[in-house]
UniProtKB/TrEMBL annotation:
The lineage of its organism: Bacteria, Pseudomonadati, Bacteroidota, Flavobacteriia, Flavobacteriales. Its cofactor is Mg(2+). One of its GO terms (molecular function) is phosphomannomutase activity. InterPro entries: A-D-PHexomutase_a/b/a-I, A-D-PHexomutase_a/b/a-I/II/III, A-D-PHexomutase_a/b/a-II, A-D-PHexomutase_a/b/a-III, A-D-PHexomutase_C, A-D-PHexomutase_C_sf, A-D-PHexomutase_CS, Alpha-D-phosphohexomutase_SF. Residues 397-453 form the Alpha-D-phosphohexomutase C-terminal domain. This is Phosphoglucomutase/phosphomannomutase alpha/beta/alpha domain I. GO terms for biological process: carbohydrate metabolic process; peptidoglycan biosynthetic process; UDP-N-acetylglucosamine biosynthetic process. Keywords: Isomerase, Magnesium, Metal-binding, Phosphoprotein. It holds the Pfam family PGM_PMM_I. Coiled coil: none annotated. Residues 8-142, 171-263, 270-376 form the Alpha-D-phosphohexomutase alpha/beta/alpha domain.
Length: 461
Protein backbone atom coordinates (compact mmCIF):
# COMPACT_ATOMS: atom_id res chain seq x y z
CA UNK A 1 0.00 0.00 0.00
CA UNK A 2 1.26 3.46 -0.72
CA UNK A 3 0.81 7.23 -0.37
CA UNK A 4 2.49 9.49 -2.90
CA UNK A 5 2.60 13.25 -2.30
CA UNK A 6 3.70 15.37 -5.25
CA UNK A 7 3.31 18.86 -6.66
CA UNK A 8 0.43 17.61 -8.81
CA UNK A 9 -1.62 16.22 -5.93
CA UNK A 10 -1.87 13.32 -3.52
CA UNK A 11 -2.34 9.72 -4.63
CA UNK A 12 -2.63 6.55 -2.61
CA UNK A 13 -4.37 3.31 -1.80
CA UNK A 14 -7.53 3.27 0.29
CA UNK A 15 -7.32 1.95 3.87
CA UNK A 16 -4.45 1.24 6.22
CA UNK A 17 -2.53 3.62 8.45
CA UNK A 18 -2.54 7.43 8.16
CA UNK A 19 0.61 8.69 6.50
CA UNK A 20 1.12 5.41 4.66
CA UNK A 21 -2.08 5.31 2.59
CA UNK A 22 -4.89 7.57 1.40
CA UNK A 23 -6.90 7.38 4.62
CA UNK A 24 -9.71 9.79 5.58
CA UNK A 25 -7.22 11.71 7.75
CA UNK A 26 -4.79 12.15 4.85
CA UNK A 27 -7.64 13.15 2.54
CA UNK A 28 -8.87 15.84 4.94
CA UNK A 29 -5.36 17.16 5.57
CA UNK A 30 -4.54 17.53 1.89
CA UNK A 31 -7.93 19.07 1.07
CA UNK A 32 -7.32 21.60 3.85
CA UNK A 33 -3.84 22.31 2.47
CA UNK A 34 -5.37 23.07 -0.92
CA UNK A 35 -8.07 25.22 0.65
CA UNK A 36 -5.42 27.13 2.61
CA UNK A 37 -3.46 27.78 -0.59
CA UNK A 38 -6.59 29.08 -2.33
CA UNK A 39 -7.34 31.42 0.59
CA UNK A 40 -3.77 32.71 0.60
CA UNK A 41 -3.97 33.36 -3.15
CA UNK A 42 -7.33 35.13 -2.84
CA UNK A 43 -7.28 37.01 0.49
CA UNK A 44 -10.64 38.26 1.68
CA UNK A 45 -12.60 36.73 -1.22
CA UNK A 46 -15.48 34.28 -1.09
CA UNK A 47 -14.14 31.19 -2.87
CA UNK A 48 -15.72 28.56 -5.10
CA UNK A 49 -14.28 25.16 -6.08
CA UNK A 50 -15.60 22.66 -8.64
CA UNK A 51 -15.45 19.03 -7.56
CA UNK A 52 -15.98 15.91 -9.65
CA UNK A 53 -14.96 12.25 -9.53
CA UNK A 54 -14.54 9.14 -11.61
CA UNK A 55 -16.52 5.99 -10.77
CA UNK A 56 -14.10 4.42 -8.28
CA UNK A 57 -15.67 2.52 -5.40
CA UNK A 58 -14.04 4.91 -2.92
CA UNK A 59 -15.12 7.99 -4.86
CA UNK A 60 -18.22 8.95 -2.89
CA UNK A 61 -16.41 8.60 0.44
CA UNK A 62 -13.43 10.66 -0.68
CA UNK A 63 -15.68 13.26 -2.28
CA UNK A 64 -17.68 13.80 0.91
CA UNK A 65 -14.49 14.18 2.94
CA UNK A 66 -13.01 16.72 0.51
CA UNK A 67 -16.22 18.70 0.03
CA UNK A 68 -16.98 19.07 3.69
CA UNK A 69 -13.39 19.94 4.56
CA UNK A 70 -13.56 22.84 2.10
CA UNK A 71 -17.04 23.80 3.35
CA UNK A 72 -15.49 23.90 6.83
CA UNK A 73 -12.97 26.41 5.51
CA UNK A 74 -15.76 28.67 4.21
CA UNK A 75 -15.40 27.61 0.57
CA UNK A 76 -18.44 27.03 -1.65
CA UNK A 77 -18.55 23.81 -3.68
CA UNK A 78 -19.94 23.12 -7.15
CA UNK A 79 -20.52 19.35 -7.05
CA UNK A 80 -20.60 17.95 -10.60
CA UNK A 81 -20.68 14.35 -9.31
CA UNK A 82 -19.65 11.51 -11.60
CA UNK A 83 -17.55 13.27 -14.20
CA UNK A 84 -14.33 13.24 -16.20
CA UNK A 85 -11.08 15.11 -15.74
CA UNK A 86 -11.62 17.31 -18.83
CA UNK A 87 -15.24 17.96 -17.82
CA UNK A 88 -14.15 19.31 -14.44
CA UNK A 89 -11.47 21.42 -16.13
CA UNK A 90 -14.08 22.99 -18.41
CA UNK A 91 -16.52 23.45 -15.51
CA UNK A 92 -13.97 25.50 -13.54
CA UNK A 93 -13.86 28.06 -16.36
CA UNK A 94 -17.60 27.99 -17.02
CA UNK A 95 -18.42 28.46 -13.33
CA UNK A 96 -15.72 31.15 -12.92
CA UNK A 97 -14.49 29.15 -9.96
CA UNK A 98 -11.24 29.73 -8.06
CA UNK A 99 -10.12 26.15 -8.51
CA UNK A 100 -11.13 22.54 -8.99
CA UNK A 101 -10.41 19.05 -7.73
CA UNK A 102 -10.82 15.83 -9.68
CA UNK A 103 -10.99 12.70 -7.53
CA UNK A 104 -9.34 10.07 -9.70
CA UNK A 105 -6.22 7.94 -9.73
CA UNK A 106 -6.32 7.94 -13.54
CA UNK A 107 -5.09 4.58 -14.87
CA UNK A 108 -4.21 3.10 -11.45
CA UNK A 109 -6.16 0.01 -10.22
CA UNK A 110 -9.38 0.31 -8.21
CA UNK A 111 -7.74 0.36 -4.75
CA UNK A 112 -6.15 3.69 -5.62
CA UNK A 113 -7.63 7.18 -5.53
CA UNK A 114 -6.21 10.68 -5.75
CA UNK A 115 -6.86 14.40 -5.55
CA UNK A 116 -5.86 16.15 -8.78
CA UNK A 117 -5.69 19.89 -8.21
CA UNK A 118 -6.62 22.70 -10.62
CA UNK A 119 -6.17 26.48 -10.65
CA UNK A 120 -8.78 29.10 -11.59
CA UNK A 121 -8.21 28.40 -15.30
CA UNK A 122 -9.08 24.73 -14.89
CA UNK A 123 -5.45 23.77 -15.48
CA UNK A 124 -3.07 21.71 -13.35
CA UNK A 125 -0.95 23.58 -10.83
CA UNK A 126 2.67 24.38 -11.65
CA UNK A 127 5.59 23.22 -9.52
CA UNK A 128 5.76 26.32 -7.31
CA UNK A 129 2.03 26.19 -6.55
CA UNK A 130 2.11 22.49 -5.80
CA UNK A 131 5.10 22.96 -3.50
CA UNK A 132 3.16 25.51 -1.42
CA UNK A 133 0.37 22.98 -0.91
CA UNK A 134 2.83 20.30 0.20
CA UNK A 135 4.27 22.77 2.74
CA UNK A 136 0.75 23.62 3.97
CA UNK A 137 0.04 19.91 4.46
CA UNK A 138 3.31 19.42 6.32
CA UNK A 139 2.78 22.40 8.65
CA UNK A 140 -0.95 21.74 9.25
CA UNK A 141 -1.53 25.42 9.94
CA UNK A 142 -5.17 25.42 8.86
CA UNK A 143 -7.76 28.04 9.75
CA UNK A 144 -11.36 26.85 9.57
CA UNK A 145 -14.44 29.05 9.27
CA UNK A 146 -16.80 29.99 12.06
CA UNK A 147 -20.37 28.73 11.90
CA UNK A 148 -21.87 31.71 10.05
CA UNK A 149 -19.13 31.59 7.42
CA UNK A 150 -19.30 27.93 6.39
CA UNK A 151 -19.35 27.20 2.68
CA UNK A 152 -22.32 25.82 0.77
CA UNK A 153 -22.64 22.88 -1.65
CA UNK A 154 -24.45 23.33 -4.94
CA UNK A 155 -25.08 20.38 -7.26
CA UNK A 156 -25.00 20.53 -11.08
CA UNK A 157 -25.77 17.16 -12.66
CA UNK A 158 -25.49 17.84 -16.39
CA UNK A 159 -21.89 18.98 -16.85
CA UNK A 160 -20.98 16.01 -19.05
CA UNK A 161 -23.82 17.06 -21.36
CA UNK A 162 -22.51 20.64 -21.34
CA UNK A 163 -19.04 19.32 -22.14
CA UNK A 164 -20.39 17.30 -25.07
CA UNK A 165 -22.15 20.39 -26.47
CA UNK A 166 -18.93 22.37 -26.16
CA UNK A 167 -17.09 19.69 -28.15
CA UNK A 168 -19.78 19.50 -30.84
CA UNK A 169 -19.60 23.30 -31.26
CA UNK A 170 -15.89 23.25 -32.14
CA UNK A 171 -15.32 24.53 -35.69
CA UNK A 172 -13.39 21.45 -36.81
CA UNK A 173 -15.96 18.96 -35.47
CA UNK A 174 -18.56 17.97 -38.07
CA UNK A 175 -21.21 15.77 -36.47
CA UNK A 176 -23.31 15.79 -39.65
CA UNK A 177 -20.46 14.35 -41.74
CA UNK A 178 -19.81 11.69 -39.10
CA UNK A 179 -23.50 10.77 -39.01
CA UNK A 180 -23.61 10.40 -42.79
CA UNK A 181 -20.58 8.10 -42.68
CA UNK A 182 -22.61 5.56 -40.68
CA UNK A 183 -19.85 4.47 -38.34
CA UNK A 184 -20.16 1.60 -35.90
CA UNK A 185 -17.91 1.89 -32.85
CA UNK A 186 -17.15 -0.37 -29.87
CA UNK A 187 -16.41 1.47 -26.60
CA UNK A 188 -14.50 0.08 -23.59
CA UNK A 189 -14.76 2.56 -20.70
CA UNK A 190 -13.46 0.19 -18.00
CA UNK A 191 -16.69 0.68 -15.99
CA UNK A 192 -15.93 4.29 -15.18
CA UNK A 193 -17.28 7.66 -16.24
CA UNK A 194 -16.16 7.29 -19.84
CA UNK A 195 -19.13 4.91 -20.02
CA UNK A 196 -21.37 7.94 -19.52
CA UNK A 197 -19.50 10.46 -21.65
CA UNK A 198 -18.19 8.61 -24.72
CA UNK A 199 -21.36 6.73 -25.77
CA UNK A 200 -23.41 9.93 -25.25
CA UNK A 201 -21.02 11.91 -27.46
CA UNK A 202 -21.02 9.22 -30.15
CA UNK A 203 -24.81 8.98 -30.23
CA UNK A 204 -25.02 12.78 -30.60
CA UNK A 205 -22.76 12.37 -33.65
CA UNK A 206 -25.00 9.70 -35.18
CA UNK A 207 -22.67 6.79 -34.47
CA UNK A 208 -23.90 3.25 -33.74
CA UNK A 209 -22.40 2.29 -30.36
CA UNK A 210 -21.56 -1.14 -29.00
CA UNK A 211 -20.86 -0.76 -25.28
CA UNK A 212 -18.29 -2.89 -23.45
CA UNK A 213 -17.74 -2.17 -19.74
CA UNK A 214 -19.62 1.14 -19.82
CA UNK A 215 -21.43 0.73 -16.47
CA UNK A 216 -19.90 3.36 -14.11
CA UNK A 217 -19.68 1.13 -11.03
CA UNK A 218 -15.92 1.32 -10.39
CA UNK A 219 -15.35 -2.43 -10.76
CA UNK A 220 -12.61 -2.37 -13.38
CA UNK A 221 -12.86 -5.61 -15.42
CA UNK A 222 -9.20 -5.42 -16.47
CA UNK A 223 -6.15 -3.29 -15.77
CA UNK A 224 -7.46 0.22 -16.54
CA UNK A 225 -4.35 1.47 -18.32
CA UNK A 226 -5.28 1.43 -22.05
CA UNK A 227 -2.38 -0.69 -23.27
CA UNK A 228 -2.46 -3.54 -25.81
CA UNK A 229 -1.96 -6.29 -23.23
CA UNK A 230 -5.13 -5.21 -21.39
CA UNK A 231 -7.43 -4.87 -24.40
CA UNK A 232 -7.92 -8.35 -25.78
CA UNK A 233 -11.70 -8.36 -25.36
CA UNK A 234 -12.45 -5.17 -27.25
CA UNK A 235 -10.00 -6.13 -30.00
CA UNK A 236 -11.98 -9.33 -30.60
CA UNK A 237 -15.33 -7.56 -30.28
CA UNK A 238 -14.46 -4.96 -32.92
CA UNK A 239 -13.87 -7.76 -35.43
CA UNK A 240 -16.91 -9.76 -34.31
CA UNK A 241 -19.21 -6.73 -34.61
CA UNK A 242 -17.68 -5.72 -37.94
CA UNK A 243 -17.14 -2.30 -36.39
CA UNK A 244 -15.19 0.55 -37.96
CA UNK A 245 -13.07 1.04 -34.86
CA UNK A 246 -12.80 0.62 -31.12
CA UNK A 247 -12.44 3.43 -28.57
CA UNK A 248 -10.79 2.91 -25.19
CA UNK A 249 -10.48 5.47 -22.40
CA UNK A 250 -8.97 5.33 -18.95
CA UNK A 251 -11.10 5.85 -15.80
CA UNK A 252 -10.97 9.68 -15.87
CA UNK A 253 -11.20 9.96 -19.68
CA UNK A 254 -8.09 12.02 -20.44
CA UNK A 255 -6.30 9.23 -22.35
CA UNK A 256 -7.62 7.90 -25.65
CA UNK A 257 -6.60 4.69 -27.38
CA UNK A 258 -8.00 3.49 -30.71
CA UNK A 259 -8.34 0.04 -32.26
CA UNK A 260 -8.62 -0.41 -36.01
CA UNK A 261 -11.22 -2.45 -37.91
CA UNK A 262 -8.91 -5.49 -37.82
CA UNK A 263 -8.76 -5.46 -34.03
CA UNK A 264 -5.20 -4.08 -34.01
CA UNK A 265 -4.01 -1.25 -31.79
CA UNK A 266 -3.79 2.09 -33.58
CA UNK A 267 -1.20 3.02 -30.96
CA UNK A 268 -1.60 5.61 -28.21
CA UNK A 269 1.25 7.61 -29.72
CA UNK A 270 -0.66 7.86 -32.98
CA UNK A 271 -3.91 9.15 -31.45
CA UNK A 272 -2.27 12.57 -31.18
CA UNK A 273 -0.61 12.21 -34.59
CA UNK A 274 -3.93 11.54 -36.35
CA UNK A 275 -5.79 14.37 -34.60
CA UNK A 276 -2.89 16.73 -35.34
CA UNK A 277 -2.91 15.67 -39.00
CA UNK A 278 -6.55 16.70 -39.27
CA UNK A 279 -6.10 19.99 -37.40
CA UNK A 280 -2.97 20.93 -39.39
CA UNK A 281 -4.78 20.21 -42.65
CA UNK A 282 -7.28 22.93 -41.73
CA UNK A 283 -5.29 25.31 -39.54
CA UNK A 284 -1.59 26.20 -39.91
CA UNK A 285 0.31 26.32 -36.63
CA UNK A 286 2.93 24.67 -34.46
CA UNK A 287 2.62 21.52 -32.37
CA UNK A 288 4.02 20.32 -29.05
CA UNK A 289 4.48 16.98 -27.30
CA UNK A 290 6.89 15.83 -24.62
CA UNK A 291 10.42 14.47 -25.01
CA UNK A 292 9.27 10.87 -24.52
CA UNK A 293 6.60 11.06 -27.23
CA UNK A 294 6.95 9.70 -30.75
CA UNK A 295 9.00 11.44 -33.43
CA UNK A 296 6.02 10.86 -35.73
CA UNK A 297 4.40 14.13 -34.61
CA UNK A 298 7.56 16.05 -35.50
CA UNK A 299 7.69 14.40 -38.93
CA UNK A 300 4.01 15.11 -39.51
CA UNK A 301 4.33 18.76 -38.48
CA UNK A 302 7.26 19.28 -40.82
CA UNK A 303 5.35 17.63 -43.68
CA UNK A 304 2.65 20.28 -43.17
CA UNK A 305 5.33 22.98 -43.22
CA UNK A 306 4.87 23.70 -39.51
CA UNK A 307 7.13 23.78 -36.45
CA UNK A 308 7.28 21.17 -33.71
CA UNK A 309 8.77 21.50 -30.23
CA UNK A 310 9.19 19.11 -27.30
CA UNK A 311 8.65 19.90 -23.62
CA UNK A 312 9.71 18.20 -20.44
CA UNK A 313 7.48 15.24 -19.50
CA UNK A 314 4.27 16.18 -17.70
CA UNK A 315 1.01 17.76 -18.85
CA UNK A 316 1.71 21.09 -17.13
CA UNK A 317 5.01 21.34 -19.07
CA UNK A 318 3.33 20.53 -22.38
CA UNK A 319 0.66 23.16 -21.74
CA UNK A 320 3.20 25.84 -20.84
CA UNK A 321 5.22 25.26 -24.01
CA UNK A 322 2.02 25.25 -26.07
CA UNK A 323 1.17 28.65 -24.63
CA UNK A 324 4.70 29.93 -25.17
CA UNK A 325 4.69 28.87 -28.84
CA UNK A 326 0.99 29.48 -29.53
CA UNK A 327 0.66 25.84 -30.61
CA UNK A 328 -2.66 24.84 -32.17
CA UNK A 329 -2.57 21.25 -30.90
CA UNK A 330 -0.37 19.20 -28.62
CA UNK A 331 -0.39 16.49 -26.03
CA UNK A 332 1.39 13.41 -24.81
CA UNK A 333 2.14 10.05 -26.35
CA UNK A 334 -0.12 8.28 -23.86
CA UNK A 335 -3.19 9.21 -25.89
CA UNK A 336 -3.60 12.67 -24.39
CA UNK A 337 -4.97 15.29 -26.82
CA UNK A 338 -4.70 18.97 -25.86
CA UNK A 339 -6.63 21.26 -28.21
CA UNK A 340 -6.59 24.92 -27.06
CA UNK A 341 -9.70 25.77 -29.10
CA UNK A 342 -11.48 23.80 -26.38
CA UNK A 343 -9.21 24.10 -23.33
CA UNK A 344 -5.67 23.44 -22.12
CA UNK A 345 -6.14 19.91 -20.85
CA UNK A 346 -5.99 16.35 -22.19
CA UNK A 347 -9.47 15.52 -23.43
CA UNK A 348 -10.63 12.21 -24.91
CA UNK A 349 -13.99 13.68 -25.96
CA UNK A 350 -12.22 16.25 -28.12
CA UNK A 351 -9.93 13.54 -29.49
CA UNK A 352 -12.86 11.26 -30.41
CA UNK A 353 -14.76 14.06 -32.17
CA UNK A 354 -11.73 15.27 -34.15
CA UNK A 355 -10.70 11.74 -35.17
CA UNK A 356 -14.19 10.71 -36.32
CA UNK A 357 -14.57 13.92 -38.33
CA UNK A 358 -11.20 13.22 -39.97
CA UNK A 359 -12.18 9.59 -40.64
CA UNK A 360 -15.44 10.73 -42.27
CA UNK A 361 -13.58 13.23 -44.44
CA UNK A 362 -10.79 10.84 -45.54
CA UNK A 363 -13.16 7.96 -46.35
CA UNK A 364 -10.38 5.52 -45.41
CA UNK A 365 -10.19 2.56 -43.07
CA UNK A 366 -8.62 3.25 -39.68
CA UNK A 367 -5.78 0.85 -40.53
CA UNK A 368 -5.12 2.76 -43.76
CA UNK A 369 -4.83 6.04 -41.88
CA UNK A 370 -2.30 4.47 -39.52
CA UNK A 371 -0.27 3.10 -42.43
CA UNK A 372 -0.06 6.57 -43.97
CA UNK A 373 2.09 7.86 -41.08
CA UNK A 374 5.81 7.38 -40.42
CA UNK A 375 6.11 4.06 -38.58
CA UNK A 376 8.01 4.12 -35.30
CA UNK A 377 8.34 1.62 -32.48
CA UNK A 378 9.14 2.24 -28.82
CA UNK A 379 10.90 0.34 -26.08
CA UNK A 380 10.45 1.39 -22.44
CA UNK A 381 12.90 0.10 -19.86
CA UNK A 382 14.51 1.04 -16.57
CA UNK A 383 17.77 0.31 -14.82
CA UNK A 384 17.89 0.07 -11.04
CA UNK A 385 20.83 1.61 -9.20
CA UNK A 386 22.05 1.54 -5.61
CA UNK A 387 20.85 4.56 -3.55
CA UNK A 388 24.41 5.86 -3.07
CA UNK A 389 25.01 6.44 -6.79
CA UNK A 390 24.76 9.99 -8.20
CA UNK A 391 22.18 9.66 -11.00
CA UNK A 392 22.81 13.22 -12.22
CA UNK A 393 26.50 12.46 -12.63
CA UNK A 394 25.72 9.27 -14.57
CA UNK A 395 23.47 11.22 -16.96
CA UNK A 396 26.18 13.88 -17.36
CA UNK A 397 28.68 11.21 -18.43
CA UNK A 398 26.19 9.74 -20.91
CA UNK A 399 25.77 13.23 -22.35
CA UNK A 400 29.56 13.59 -22.65
CA UNK A 401 29.77 10.27 -24.50
CA UNK A 402 27.34 11.55 -27.16
CA UNK A 403 28.17 15.27 -27.35
CA UNK A 404 28.43 15.12 -31.12
CA UNK A 405 24.71 14.25 -31.37
CA UNK A 406 21.64 16.49 -30.91
CA UNK A 407 21.10 16.56 -27.13
CA UNK A 408 18.29 18.01 -25.00
CA UNK A 409 18.70 18.33 -21.22
CA UNK A 410 15.51 20.05 -20.02
CA UNK A 411 14.31 16.73 -18.58
CA UNK A 412 17.07 14.20 -18.09
CA UNK A 413 19.06 13.57 -21.27
CA UNK A 414 17.54 12.98 -24.69
CA UNK A 415 19.86 12.00 -27.53
CA UNK A 416 18.47 12.40 -31.04
CA UNK A 417 20.30 10.21 -33.53
CA UNK A 418 19.50 10.47 -37.24
CA UNK A 419 17.27 7.37 -37.33
CA UNK A 420 16.26 6.93 -33.67
CA UNK A 421 16.42 8.46 -30.20
CA UNK A 422 16.90 7.61 -26.53
CA UNK A 423 15.54 9.51 -23.54
CA UNK A 424 17.01 8.91 -20.09
CA UNK A 425 15.17 10.28 -17.03
CA UNK A 426 15.78 9.75 -13.36
CA UNK A 427 12.94 8.84 -11.02
CA UNK A 428 12.06 11.39 -8.34
CA UNK A 429 11.20 8.69 -5.82
CA UNK A 430 13.65 5.81 -6.33
CA UNK A 431 17.21 5.21 -7.60
CA UNK A 432 16.34 4.21 -11.15
CA UNK A 433 16.88 5.62 -14.62
CA UNK A 434 14.01 5.29 -17.07
CA UNK A 435 15.16 4.49 -20.59
CA UNK A 436 12.82 5.23 -23.51
CA UNK A 437 13.92 4.52 -27.05
CA UNK A 438 12.25 4.82 -30.43
CA UNK A 439 13.29 3.48 -33.82
CA UNK A 440 11.84 2.29 -37.13
CA UNK A 441 11.50 -1.30 -35.94
CA UNK A 442 10.81 -2.89 -32.57
CA UNK A 443 14.04 -4.87 -32.80
CA UNK A 444 16.06 -1.70 -33.38
CA UNK A 445 14.36 0.10 -30.48
CA UNK A 446 15.03 -2.83 -28.15
CA UNK A 447 18.67 -3.04 -29.28
CA UNK A 448 19.21 0.68 -28.67
CA UNK A 449 17.75 0.33 -25.17
CA UNK A 450 20.06 -2.57 -24.34
CA UNK A 451 23.03 -0.64 -25.70
CA UNK A 452 22.24 2.29 -23.41
CA UNK A 453 21.79 -0.02 -20.42
CA UNK A 454 25.25 -1.50 -21.08
CA UNK A 455 26.73 1.99 -21.40
CA UNK A 456 25.29 3.01 -18.04
CA UNK A 457 26.53 -0.19 -16.41
CA UNK A 458 30.06 0.58 -17.72
CA UNK A 459 29.87 4.10 -16.28
CA UNK A 460 28.78 2.76 -12.90
CA UNK A 461 31.38 -0.04 -12.81
Amino acid sequence: MSLIKSISGIRGTIGGKPGDNLTPLDTVKFAAAYGTWLKNENPGKKLKVVLGRDARISGAMVQNLVMNTLVGMGIDIVDVGLSTTPTVEIAVSMEKANGGIILTASHNPKQWNALKLLNHKGEFLNGAEGEKILINAENEEFLFAEVDDLGKIGVIEDYIDRHIEEVLNLKLVDAEAVSKAGFKVVVDAVNSTGGIAIPALLKKMGVEVVELYCEPNGHFPHNPEPLKEHLGEISKLVVKENADLGIVVDPDVDRLALIDEKGQMFGEEYTLVACADYVLSKTPGSTVSNLSSSRALRDLSLSHGQKYQASAVGEVNVVQLMKDTNAIIGGEGNGGIIYPESHYGRDSLVGVALFLTYLAEKKMLVSEIKESYPQYFMSKNKIELTPDLDVDEILRKVQENHNSEEITTIDGVKIDFSENWVHLRKSNTEPIIRIYTEAKSQEEADKLAQKMIREIEEIVA
